[in-house]
Amino acid sequence: MTDDVTRGWQRPSIYDVARQAGVSHMTVSRVLNGHPNIRESTRERVLQAIDEMNYTRSSIARALATRRAMRIGVLVDGPVQYGPNSTLRALESAARDVGYAVSAFTISDDEESQIDTGVVELVTQGVDALCVIAPRASSLDILRKQTTGLPTIVIKAEPDAAWHTVAVDQRAGATLAVSHLIELGHRHILHVAGPLDWYDARERQEGWSDALTAAGLPVVPSVAGDWTSDYGYEFGSSFELDDVTAIFVANDQMALGVIHGLSDRGIRVPDDISVVGFDDLPDARHFLPPLTTVRQDFAALGELALRQIIAAIDGEEDGMRHDRIEPRLIVRSSTRAPRA
């Protein structure tokens, strides 16, 4: 009876192969990915370990970037948030329509080091390309150090010299929200931002600031939140508003908390203060009051990202592209002209 049968056979992982070959898991990944800067003796040692451990040749073939596995690897930063989750589902739907599968690796807010593990796992699965959804600046700093040889698309609100990028135009969305408030007559508009390590949060903050500056209105320091309704409630129930007559909140979840916190203080929305959110959650129209917000077309974003991914796989892209989708302002009952 073999040891495999005695202990119950498990498919060997890339880490098992690395231990057997006496190298790092990243070296194994580079061998699987056909990386040129690997010594031949090291490559042979890794391939020998693969053979000895029955790490199947089909897995290796699928992991080579030059072969077609009809699979896209997706790194999702902050998967519990509405935007990243909706983008992933949209990408999966678009991929299915053209015969591609999606393998996702999620990264929690406090686990930036998981990016390294995620890239290795996805490459080992034999993906044809990588897509990164909703990255934080710190996440991309880690990713820049990776060498996979795979086409990589980043869902990112601003261009990047290293990758193809696609995004809903976050800055334009913020401009729509603030311009709406200005047109209603508001002159002191506060911003509750998302975590400023997130590119989307930065773009929304800059759009708010630029719109106020263009209108000749004061730009007071924004408040950085954490995307959650709990933070919005804490802010709404305690922050001194002074002359503020309107608040642009960086996402609908925080906006819900803000409205709740203001209500507990006896401050009425929109009679005493107007509130605008961002995302257009499915329930935003049922908030009390129904929320004015910025809608992102995640289905269109998923289709656009997939088109770029397939073009990159096919070698049809020359240079780095940045494509954007325009958002829409959805006006509901949480905004009105300020009281005289």
UniProtKB/TrEMBL annotation:
HTH lacI-type domain sequence ranges: 12-66
Question: What domain of life does the native source organism fall in?
Answer: Bacteria
Q: Which residues cross the membrane?
A: none
Entry's Gene3D superfamilies?
A: 3.40.50.2300, lambda repressor-like DNA-binding domains
Record's Pfam families? Answer: LacI, Peripla_BP_3
GO molecular function per UniProt: DNA binding
Which keywords fit this entry according to its UniProt record?
DNA-binding, Transcription, Transcription regulation
Q: Which PROSITE patterns match?
A: HTH_LACI_1, HTH_LACI_2
Q: What is this protein called?
A: LacI family DNA-binding transcriptional regulator
Which organism is this entry from? Microbacterium alkaliflavum
